[in-house]
Design a protein that fits this description.
single chain; about 280 residues; Rossmann fold; Alpha-Beta Plaits; 2 domains; 4-stranded parallel β-sheet; about 30% helix; about 20% strand
Length: about 280
């Protein structure tokens, strides 16, 4: 979706995880800590500023809020600002939270959109993945919706609000979502079926916050204390299943869970399937 918007408008596409990584890399090269770093963006005259993100527990993802908090935006009078979120069934007041944070930066989204996509949250017992038929229906409708959004954004139409708040948006966002984002955005609920894991490393590659570690264990096949042999006598190296850092960085995007080719990654005691978007 974000890629389509960038192509239609002819504007630059920035990936929030990569932007935050740049900030951390800059911090390691200076005397400052990552918490001291700020990202600066200056928009050209007539340039659009869009925020595209998935809804996490009826709120904007933690990583999106961190990005906005750590950024400054030097906008022009002609800057057109908009926001698009995806959601499984509804997004509650997620955009209200986003706009409040944008206002703290002197911004205001002039148009707001929500796109219904297949459900992917497996962290609540009352949420279930969609059937394959329902997945196809949602994706087909999403294609039409995204095309419409592209047209609206390209034309810079203001005051367009097309959201899916649900029947009880306050409860979704501030009660259920409040609990979810306070207590369930954590990586210590993930566990790996060691027998099913093929040690491919895909989970680590896809993690937007670099929260997954893949260790390599050296099997000492030489006399104790002697690991200096080379060639065929060198200690064998064995890849271990992934583990999480438990440092509070997890944003609970579930990319590791849903992309695992063997469904070896699980979350708590939930017995759920996987959903992976394929644009056919």
């Amino acid at each position: 979706m974000a890629r389509q918007l960038a192509e239609v408008t002819g504007e630059e596409l920035l990936y929030i995880p990569d932007e935050l990584r740049k900030m951390k890399q800059t911090a390691t090269k200076s005397e400052h800590t990552a918490t001291d770093q700020v990202l600066h963006y200056t928009l050209k005259d007539g340039e659009r500023l869009g925020f595209c993100f998935p809804t996490h527990g009826w709120q904007p993802p933690r990583i999106v809020r961190e990005f906005i908090r750590r950024s400054t935006f030097n906008v022009q009078v002609s800057t057109y600002t908009y926001a698009v979120t995806t959601c499984g069934d509804n997004m509650g007041y997620a955009m209200r939270i986003l706009n409040k944070q944008l206002r703290s930066k002197g911004l205001q989204a002039q148009s707001l959109f929500a796109v219904l996509m297949p459900e992917s949250n497996v962290c609540f017992s009352f949420l279930h993945l969609d059937s394959k038929e329902r997945e196809r229906e949602k994706i087909a409708a999403a294609h039409v919706k995204v095309q419409h959004i592209c047209e609206v954004v390209k034309a810079r139409q203001q005051g367009v609000v097309e959201l899916i708040r649900g029947a009880i948006p306050f409860t979704y966002t501030y009660v259920i979502g409040g609990f979810y984002n306070k207590h369930l955005i954590r990586d210590d609920k993930f566990w790996v079926d060691d027998d099913a894991c093929i040690r491919c490393g895909l989970c680590q590659q896809l993690c937007p916050v670099d929260d997954i570690i893949l260790d390599v264990q050296t099997a000492n096949s030489t006399p104790a204390g002697n690991n200096t042999l080379t060639g065929n006598n060198a200690p064998a190296q064995q890849k271990l299943p992934p583990r999480w850092k438990h440092d509070g960085s997890c944003t609970n995007c579930l990319a590791c869970y849903h992309h695992c080719p063997r469904h070896a990654i699980h979350w708590a005691k939930m017995k759920r399937g996987q959903y992976l978007f394929k644009d056919e």
